[in-house]
Amino acid sequence: MLNKLLITGADGKLGSVCRSRLHGLATTIRLGAREDVGPAGANEEIMYCDLGDKDAVEAMVEGCDGIVHMGGQSIEAPWETIKQSNIDGVFNLYEAARKSSVTPRIFFASSNHAIGFHEQTTRLDANAQVRPDGLYGVSKVFGEALARLYFEKFGIETALVRIGSSFPEPKNHRMLATWLSYDDLISLIESVFTIPRLGCPIVYGASNNDASWWDNRETSFLGWKPKDNSETFRARIDAECTPPAKDEVSAVYQGGEFCGQGILEE
Amino acid sequence: MLNKLLITGADGKLGSVCRSRLHGLATTIRLGAREDVGPAGANEEIMYCDLGDKDAVEAMVEGCDGIVHMGGQSIEAPWETIKQSNIDGVFNLYEAARKSSVTPRIFFASSNHAIGFHEQTTRLDANAQVRPDGLYGVSKVFGEALARLYFEKFGIETALVRIGSSFPEPKNHRMLATWLSYDDLISLIESVFTIPRLGCPIVYGASNNDASWWDNRETSFLGWKPKDNSETFRARIDAECTPPAKDEVSAVYQGGEFCGQGILEE
Amino acid sequence: MLNKLLITGADGKLGSVCRSRLHGLATTIRLGAREDVGPAGANEEIMYCDLGDKDAVEAMVEGCDGIVHMGGQSIEAPWETIKQSNIDGVFNLYEAARKSSVTPRIFFASSNHAIGFHEQTTRLDANAQVRPDGLYGVSKVFGEALARLYFEKFGIETALVRIGSSFPEPKNHRMLATWLSYDDLISLIESVFTIPRLGCPIVYGASNNDASWWDNRETSFLGWKPKDNSETFRARIDAECTPPAKDEVSAVYQGGEFCGQGILEE
Amino acid sequence: MLNKLLITGADGKLGSVCRSRLHGLATTIRLGAREDVGPAGANEEIMYCDLGDKDAVEAMVEGCDGIVHMGGQSIEAPWETIKQSNIDGVFNLYEAARKSSVTPRIFFASSNHAIGFHEQTTRLDANAQVRPDGLYGVSKVFGEALARLYFEKFGIETALVRIGSSFPEPKNHRMLATWLSYDDLISLIESVFTIPRLGCPIVYGASNNDASWWDNRETSFLGWKPKDNSETFRARIDAECTPPAKDEVSAVYQGGEFCGQGILEE
Amino acid sequence: MLNKLLITGADGKLGSVCRSRLHGLATTIRLGAREDVGPAGANEEIMYCDLGDKDAVEAMVEGCDGIVHMGGQSIEAPWETIKQSNIDGVFNLYEAARKSSVTPRIFFASSNHAIGFHEQTTRLDANAQVRPDGLYGVSKVFGEALARLYFEKFGIETALVRIGSSFPEPKNHRMLATWLSYDDLISLIESVFTIPRLGCPIVYGASNNDASWWDNRETSFLGWKPKDNSETFRARIDAECTPPAKDEVSAVYQGGEFCGQGILEE
Amino acid sequence: MLNKLLITGADGKLGSVCRSRLHGLATTIRLGAREDVGPAGANEEIMYCDLGDKDAVEAMVEGCDGIVHMGGQSIEAPWETIKQSNIDGVFNLYEAARKSSVTPRIFFASSNHAIGFHEQTTRLDANAQVRPDGLYGVSKVFGEALARLYFEKFGIETALVRIGSSFPEPKNHRMLATWLSYDDLISLIESVFTIPRLGCPIVYGASNNDASWWDNRETSFLGWKPKDNSETFRARIDAECTPPAKDEVSAVYQGGEFCGQGILEE
């Protein structure tokens, strides 16, 4: 059991899921957030922090032996936004981890958008080449590389989790392959923090969906077996959504609509 | 949902299974057959056609947006028979598809006999080298290659399904590995026609049997999860069939008895 | 069904499990042992034999059409001990098999310690390089190589089963990945002796554990599907055992504590 | 040294190169041709034969212990032409080989057009999936599959040589990668007929060009080392040919212009 | 032949080598530099520019159909330095390329330090996982990912060249494997700009050294054959340099001394 | 440069080649031999020793920082002979190395007979499965595994060199693929002892022959480039030797005649 687990982005969607579900993992949960997260609950402490602020990040990280990094920008945005949160912010996080009095283990929320330009008819494993589908995806490649550096050089272990689409339910046909249920997200985080030795593996964050593009065979040592299956929702999705035509970007590429976007300008 | 689904070989074993089970896939089912298939049912239309007759094939294919190609010769035969049905016939089918006013998606009933000379102790995936075990198997390699050409050049999508042994129940020890239940065949056809983008994948058509030689990992994007398991029938097979000795052709090669046949002459 | 199945090491832990569970496989069970195994039961015959005694081994093997080789040294020991049981003993066994009036099929209890110096974060399949973690592991590499020779040269089929940790229950965190339940061990032996053609495959002997380092994909032709899952015991293990730190040998290497031992001297 | 070597297509370009260069391989050279090949030279015999004529092919093949099969259609053509020469013709050839009093070894002139729809930026080896770029390419896939069948079933060895562009000199930018000099073609044929055991390998027929898409690593056992290099001709080609734009079919696909052709009709 | 080739970092070591050797590739050479590069020669134009200055970069890139990007930080440095040159600077470069009236092809000087934490006893090809050995290496991973994005989304072709050690002569034992002679660097650049279709390949920039860690097999389509061999210099290096002990960082990792550095602070 | 290099088997064929060619590698050459090796030359010392004599082996190994292990049995022999030299003898050697006051680096003369049952039409690299072709081959697999253990556990580096056929000239058709010239053997030994970090790689010991079954790509870090080519001798071999028929053991398997031998009895 961890002593102090930091959840960054605690004011975001997945951050709040983690807040409500991970109390069993640590004596204290520290919530890192930019926006208001309400009052601290039992065994919670709150630290407001901008990831671009190096000193604040160091203070937030100090003393934590686990970090679930959900913070930062989680969709495509203009370069300055991406850079501040996901380039500088991640650098600040790893520097803080290196300087902390306790070496933390880290769950890094990477994204399928790091490999979004692979076609949906292709199966990927941890050895797949990166093919980011936007500046957001490029920033995740950066974060994965930085984490790998800090693992090799300083022994900081990170799970590089390329999250698919983590929502209460899949919302469209593409998500039949990419959906990650909250239960499966939580069980993955638990695996990451309870296995004796983690290393720095790339893991694809998707539930046990019938339709699948990603192969976690290389990380079976984690013992993570997702239980949910998007197939449960297929009838509803068929009823509510028009499936894309075969040449639409959301049917061709794993990254879906992201692959069709241009570079966003301020 | 398809507008008009053509089932070729509707007078054959698998063709009639399809006829009775695929009505949910299309507004109209067109039945292509050489022999009598009885009266047309609701939403059915019947077209008698020899696959070697180019004009008849064009008429049969015209207007269909889906084709389940079960027609042609399905076991070893003399060259002229194979050639007419499975060489000329398949060429006629793809030419008709190319010329049709509607570009159809095709389920092509290929066969494990395209790879039948691999040993049973070897696991194959979609990248395995072909090793046909007879003229029939060679004709299936031809069909797969032709389908690939029409995909690359004209965008006609085909699922190249190397069907194992599709029967109500497995009949002998070899079929413990090769059996494809009718339910699983039908669910595979449904996956092929409902996925937004198919491409031109090679799929092995076998149920979820404990004993397995084939790996569909590369086509998990289809979301097809066969549910039946030949293991259910093992006790009965053990009771009814003498297992082959270790050096008999039906124990050595994936294609079984086909590998022991000579070239059939007229 | 076999005529006569020899179980070597019948006085050992796994040997006695086999004795009590394999009567359905053969008309007669012959028990090979060094220590007392009590009185012969129905359809049992007992032959006391030291594996280092060539003539005794020939007598023990003669007439058997199946051998489950559980005999020999099963943990690290000084060289002379290892050599007598697992080098000379295995040579004697295969020579006896070659000379026997009946060519037996063999289940060879190899060990995960043949590949014990691979890291736990690495997934292995049958093509993995050997990395023995002690003299015991080296002797298992020797046995696998000898079995392969006798397969290629004399057609003697052997299943080279790299057994993980076969106990009634997993005993520590490492065994969450390596545990092989007795039920799954027995069902594997049954598969080995009932499949028409075995060849000389490498199989990893582990149950269907959530945490897994080993991939039996290449031997799916066996039809062996382990049913038990160490996960059932995780809570108890968490309660009873302190998990190793990330840099302890039992967290780093697949062979666990064996990797930390020196060469034992007499 | 062979007793009697048949060169089919002796009236064609590569056939006549073979005629003039292979006399050292066999006591007698038999020339198979449709068109006039002039008078027979020393140790030559001539047999006029249409590959679609089964009896004529049997007569032509009878008694030969080596066959260089250069005959048949060598560029894209309407289906009936392709079928007669490269489908029926190849079937007739292998049937004749099977029935011959002498089992011949065969050099089968397959073509890069069997894999022409792979991109030029991809490196292929003998395990590459076929991607034919026309009916001609499909017929070569057929021929390779048929040869494989006759190897597995009847022990007839064939070298499946996917010839690139065999001309005195490369003619355009694409041929910098695909060029096979006549010297290298001849030395390949010599290797095929002098190695004690050939099997049925796929070989890419290209010279030792700096620019290369094909990897013959898997067939290094042949000992064939092409000596010529298209680079010698680069300056001339740069001077004489406009290089294609990056999105022209001759710059995108290995099959070059073939990939841009439609289906030819009679 | 290019119309206008931009060489960034023209004031640096490799930039000046390019300046003096690439005049044959383009009608005009535009030199991008921060420091003084002397007077413009024939067919040269000079643009002083800081890569962190977006508008200046756009002006520098405008109108160029080729870019050799040697600019930016080329060794480890504090984060702010790396970020300005190699993160922001590269983003500015690709944005400028996207906005330019002419779509340029780009030679991107990536680095072996993107994969520096692989061991020297491991052979890498284009599919190797990144393992950067410092912030510099991480920035090169970023640049490669960004280039890939602009290729997939906007069709901008880039050669991602992981340069080893480009000096007039190798300087120490590690460089026997990593050395890239100036001649071979120049011939690689020429290949990149003359091949009709480039795509976005990863290429290892090392000469034809006997000792080699890197495999360019996947990019043989480029037709680049380095001619120089570090072996020529082995005697001198043996005389002048003490080889590292087997456990020194410069003998263990491909990145050499970089792997032993800490994070540099301002 | 080494201080003291031990050459075992100095009374054997390859041992004496080493004796006469390796003086440049070490200040002192220690010759280990069973039979008379004549008087010690300059900088030579001689130690007569039976590899089965543990104490003698310890004395022989003590103080050496390099070992070329050419000693032991080098062709098929009865089990007791193999066991004494190549099982016990190799164990004694590695134990001596472990106990020595100086940790030596070792060149272990393994053999192609460790993989002799692979077919000649198959290309092997360092990851190939072992397929020994006799007790001799099995003993080499044992030696490789033991060396790997002592590398992982005690840091003793060994080059596992699967020597093909090392003679002044190739003697038959098989040796066109397996020949290792003395010059190339010596240059390989030099590479092994001069590279700063060796690890424990598997290397195939064959010259730069046109015909090749083995791929040393994985060990290109050694910088070993064999220079000789058996092709030089092809004409002579063709003149002097009848090539084997395609189904003779010397044409089928890499191990050649060894594959056809039985188990030798005393």
TrEMBL record, chains A, B, C, D, E, F:
Keyword Oxidoreductase: yes
Keywords: NAD, Oxidoreductase
SUPFAM superfamilies: NAD(P)-binding Rossmann-fold domains
Oxidoreductase recorded as keyword: yes
Pfam families: Epimerase
InterPro entries for this protein: Epimerase_deHydtase, NAD(P)-bd_dom_sf
Residue intervals of the NAD-dependent epimerase/dehydratase domain: 6-167
GO molecular function term, any single one: oxidoreductase activity
Protein family according to the UniProt entry: Belongs to the NAD(P)-dependent epimerase/dehydratase family.
Listed name of the protein: Uronate dehydrogenase
Naturally occurring in which organism (per UniProt): Ruegeria conchae
